[in-house]
Amino acid sequence: MPHFLIQGGGGLPVLNGEIFVGGSKNSALPALASSLLFKEKPKFSNLPDIEDIKRMNELISPVEFGEKMDMEIAKRFRASILPVGLVLARYGAVSFPHPGGCVIGARPIDVFLSGWEAMGAKIKTPAKTEGGNLIYEAEAPEGLKGADYVFKTQSVTGTEGMIMTAVLANGDTVLRNCAMEPEIIYLVDFLNKNGARIAGAGTTTIHIEGRGGKLLTGASPFTAPPDRIEAGTFLILGALAAKELLIKNIFPEEAAALMGVLKEAGANITMEKNSAVVKKTKNIKGVNIKTKEYPGFATDLQAPFAVFATQAMGQSMIHETIFEGRLSYTQDLNLMGANISLMDSHRAMISGPTQLYGRKLESPDLRAGLAFMIAALIAHGESQIGNIYQIDRGHEKIDLRLKNIGANIQRI
Ligand code: EPU
Predict the structure, then answer these.
(1) Domains held by the chain: number
(2) CATH number of the domain bearing residue 281
(3) Same-domain status, 14 and 120
(4) HEC secondary structure over 233-282
(5) Structural domain span for residue 264
(6) Cβ(309)–Cβ(317) under 8 Å?
(7) What are the pocket residues of ligand 1 if the criterion is a CB atom closer than 6 Å to any ligand atom?
(8) 272 CA distance to ligand 1 centroid (A)?
(9) pLDDT digit of tens for each residue in the chain (412 aa)?
(10) Are residues 262 and 185 in the same domain?
C-alpha cells in the first residue's frame, strides 16, 4: 500500500512560497448529488480530483439512467446518504446501506430517516443485515409530501439532504434547527439559480417550495468554492513551519473562528481579500478551543489545531463537542513526543511546547491524516504515514503541493 515518507524540518521554518487551496469536497459532494434533481446533468467546475468525488460520480451516474444505487460504493463513504432522499422522491423506493466514511464517532443517520418519515415515507424496521452491512429500505409510492420538520440535532448533510428531497416533494417544506455551514448556502444558491425556490439558507429555518416531482431544467453551472478546512490547515502549517507562506484561494470570512484562535496564540498572519500570508513566529502561547457548528470552530480543524498546540507555550484545552470519537489520534502525537492528556472522550489537555520526533503512523481519518503530515513536517527525523487513501479522499495531490513549498515528502 502506498505511504508518505516525510523528513521533518525539526521545528525550523523550512517551508516557503505559494500554496493554492483546492475546491471544497464538502461543498462539491451535495452539489454533485443534486444532479438527481435535474433533467440533464448540470456542469461542474473546480471540483477537487479526489476519491470521494469519484465515488459520488460512480454512485449517482447509474441512478440518472434509472438504475439502482450500488451498495458496495455507497457503504464506502458517508456522503452516499446525500442522494438517497432524491432517489426515494424520484422513483418511490430506495434501498441503501448504512454509509461508511471517517471513523470519528457513531455517525448515525436517524435525522435522515425521521425526516423522510415526516415527508410520508415508510421505512422498514428493523433494517436487514446482509454480509455484515445494515441495509435500509424506504418506500413512498405516492411521492413525498412537504413537511414541517425540526432537526433534533444540527446536521450538515442532514440539512442538505432534506433540502434537496423537499425540492421534489408535493407541497412546501419548512426545516427548523438547520445547520448553517457555508456549504448549505452554496448548494441552495446553485439550486435557486436553476429554478428552485428555497429561502433561509445560512439560518436555522429554511423554506422550500416543493415541485411535485418536476425536475429542474436550469443551466447555471456549479463552481466549487475553496475548501475552508484545507485553507485553515495550511494557515496552521504556515504558522508552525513557514519562513513565508502565501495561501491563495482562501475566503477570510470562512476562516474567522480559526483566525481568532491563531491570533490569540500570537501567530503572524496577514489576511487579504482572497489570500493570506503566514510566517512562523516564536513563542506562540496555548489557547483553548471548543468545536462548534459554523460559524464556530470547525471540528474538522480540531486535529490540525492539536498539532499547533503541541508547539505552544503553556496549556491548551480542546473540547470536541460535535463527535465523540475524534481524539484518538492524540495517542500517536504522544508517541511522537507530545504531552496530551485525554480528560474524557470529548476533552484533551495539551501541554507545550514539546519537540516532536518522526515515527511510523497510520492515517486514522482524512483530517487527522493531514494533521499527522503537519506533525511529521515539524518533527525531528523521518516519519512514514500509512493508510493515505484516507488523506487522498479529501485533499488533491497534497504531497505535490507541499513539495512545491519545500516539504521533503515522497509518495512510495
Ligand atoms: N448526527 C446525528 N444523527 C444523524 C446525523 C448526524 O445524531 O442522523 C449527529 C452526528 O453524530 C454529529 C452531529 O450530528 O454529532 C453533526 O454531524 P453532521 O451530520 O453535521 O456531520 P456530517 O454531515 O455527517 C459533515 C462533514 C464532516 C464534518 C461534519 C461536521 C460532509 C460530507 N461531511 O458531516 O466532514 O466533520 O459535517 O462539520 O459534509 C470531513 O470532511 O473530513 C468530514 C468528516
Answers:
(1) 2
(2) 3.65.10.10
(3) no
(4) HHHHHHHHHEEEEEEECCCHHHHHHHHHHHHHHCCEEEECCCEEEEECCC
(5) 4-22+226-411
(6) no
(7) 25-26, 29, 78-79, 102, 105-112, 153, 155-158, 179, 299-300, 322-323, 366-367, 394
(8) 30
(9) 899 999 999 999 999 999 999 999 999 999 999 999 999 999 999 999 999 999 999 999 999 888 888 989 998 889 999 999 999 999 999 999 998 755 556 678 999 999 999 999 999 988 888 887 889 999 999 999 999 999 999 999 999 999 999 999 999 999 999 999 999 999 999 999 999 999 999 999 999 999 999 999 988 999 999 999 999 999 999 999 999 999 999 999 999 999 999 999 999 999 999 999 999 998 999 999 999 999 999 999 999 999 999 999 999 999 999 998 899 999 999 999 999 999 999 999 999 999 999 999 999 999 999 999 999 999 999 999 999 999 999 999 999 999 999 999 999 9
(10) no
Whether residue 140 sits in one domain with residue 81: yes
pTM of the model: 0.96
- Closest atom of ligand 1 to 157 CA is 23
Cell numbers placing 270: 496577514
Cell numbers 495561501 correspond to 247
Q: Are residues 339 and 294 in the same domain?
A: yes
Coil, strand or helix at 366:
helix
* Residue 402 grid cell: 507541499
Q: Which of 194, 223, 252 is the last residue of a domain?
A: 223
C-alpha cell at 26: 464538502
For the CA of 104, the closest atom of ligand 1 is: 44
